[in-house]
UniProtKB/TrEMBL annotation:
Residues 161-171, 178-187 have a biased composition (Basic and acidic residues). Residues 191-205 have a biased composition (Basic residues). Residues 161-214 are annotated as: Disordered. This is DUF1569 domain-containing protein.
Amino acid sequence: MKSTLKLKTIDDIEKELSIIITCEKKQKSDITLSQIFDFLAESIELSIQGVGYTTKRTTVNKLLGKYKFAKLISTGHYTKANQIPGFPPRDLGDPESAQLRLKTSLTAFKLHSGPFADHPVFGELDKKQWEKIHGILSSFLFGYIQLFGDEKLRFAKDRENKKERNFSEKKQNHHQRKNEDKGESKPSGHNNRKWKNKKKSHYKGNKNQGGGHK
């Protein structure tokens, strides 16, 4: 199953999760929401908490892991569930707890600066590399969730409209402040110019009175 989602960052995952939570949805297969959320949460948790739980990897395994990682990044998606070790997990039957667990793990990942655990297949990864893996995994697993009708489109459109309104309001407020600043400074500058002109004409008069050509 190839997903059309392209989630690249933790922020992307959080936004998509908020859409899934808000919209009406149903399963596309026998994979439940609880399994999806729990598996994603566990993957993220292990990337930041599994430090030290590494297995000895031969040089061949290290090279093979780097090759598999590069291949996954270049394609940008999983195509089959059997490409993901340990999926699907046992269904705990509590989607609300799984949802909260996933939200918590996403926040924890954003706040965690390191060190990071080794991936069981790809080996040593840094934060950016782990983030890419989480994005690709989320894109694939969220593909098991079907949203009813155009609920997702409507939700995304409302969010974009809200952003546009906020931007317009900020832009309008900025112009108002700019105009107010101009209005306050203009009289002062105008008076200064008058004073300079008066001073200049007075100076010319003194020059003529001092014996200049008539």
